[in-house]
Structures are given as structure tokens and as C-alpha cells.
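Schema walkthrough. Field components (list of strings):
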Amino acid sequence: MTTGYLFNNFNLYLFLSLFLLCCGILGIVYRRTLIAMLISVELIMNGAGLNFVAINRFLYPDKVNGQVFTLFIMGIAAAETAIALAIVILIFRRYKKIEADTLKEMKD
Amino acid sequence: MIILADVMFVVLILITILGALTTVLSGSLIYALMGLIATMFGIAGLYIYLNAPFIAMMQILIYVGAISILIAFAIMLAGPMFKRPKEWSRPIKFISGAITACVIFILFLNVIMRTEWTTIKAEPIKTTTKELGRALFDRFMLPFELISLLIVVSIIGAIMIALYSRKER
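Field assembly_structure (string):
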């Protein structure tokens, strides 16, 4: 049996993905630039993928649904990054800044 | 008794945690990107521990190979970074973000600790890439096609955004 090992501890993976989620939320609130916020979103996506694969491995080890959903998450992350970075480059060409504080034209 | 697999596991978790902290707290954008890459490598190693070597390979290929390079190009295109002020914004923002993160952490910690997980103690069945591909083209056919359509639309959209901004100038 391999139950005694540390890497068979289910809660450890959940704690790690929860930590990644909290880091991502802190980054979205705290960072100044739009690209850093996008990087924080990537952290959250990584944590979600780790959560899917861990639940698949420990609760339903004879299915592959969690791994398939992690692949979908990767595809969605790639699409989202491409669009968001295009918008960030557009904002930089127009305003010469990528700080999120400068985008207040609609607010004023 | 300490075995090598456990040591490697702890090292991977430390890489992931330190990478995430670097991503959030560092003052420079390119350091944040480096922290993100370290986090992705750590999670790829954890996928191997979770009996998902194909997902680990895809993690390295897609996240480290594609998304990080995309973000690096965006950082380079967005002007010289050394002229900018540091990433640290006002401390009130950090405090509010930390409070939000702590509240969410405690909330989900309660959820995790109170749920009765029925983990299967036996040696798990190793899911192979063949089963993964069969599931991908059998039960998950429609989401798979929708994901590919989404990626095509996003690529076309990114190109269109770049083209129109150039015409405008």
C-alpha cells in the first residue's frame, strides 16, 4: 500500500490550489498594470486545473473527466490570453500607459 | 523514513508556493512572469505525481511554451519597463486585497475540512493517454469542437484588433 506517503495526501493538493486562488485574487486587487492582473488570472487558472486533476485522481480514479476538463481550461486560458494581450497592446498604443488607473475615461 | 519521492514532492510544492508569492509581490513585471513560469513548472511536476503525465506535458507545452512567451512579448511591446514606477500600489489596496484573500482562504478551508471526502485508498488505475483521447473524441466531442472554434475566433479577433489600431494611427 502506498497510503502513508506525503504525495498521497489529498488535502495537500486542495490547500495548494486554494493558496493559488488566494494569490491570484490578491494580485488582481493589488497590482497596478493590466499585464500583471492577467498573470494573476493565469495563477487562478492553474489552481483550478490542479484541483480538477487532484479530484479525478483521488475520488474517481477510473475516469478521465477531470483531465479532459483541465485540457479545456488550458485551451480557454490560451484564447483569453491572446485576446487580453491584444487589448492591452491597443491600450498602450492609445494611452502610452498600461496602468489600470489611467483607464478612467468612461468613469469621468 | 524519508523517501526520495516525498522530498521531491515537497520541493515541487515549495517551488509552486514561492513562484506564486513572487508573482504577486514582486515589483517588476518580468520578475512576476518568471514567478509564473516557476509556478507552472511546479504544477507540471505535481501532475506527474497525480498520474497524469499527458496533462503535465501539455502544461509545459501550452502554459510555459505558449502563454508565457505571449506575455513576455506583450511586456516587451509595452515599452521600456525601467522607466515605470514600481508595481506596488497604495498600501490600502494591499490591505483590502489581503483581507479579501484571507476571507476566501478561511471560507474554502472550512469547506475543505468539513467535507467528507471518500478517497479511494487502493492503488489507482493508471489512466493512459489512449483513454484520454478516446474520451476526448467520444463523450466530449462537442466541447472539444467548441474549444477549437473559440481559439480560432480569439486568434482572428486578436489579429483584427491589431489591424484596426494600425489603420487608425
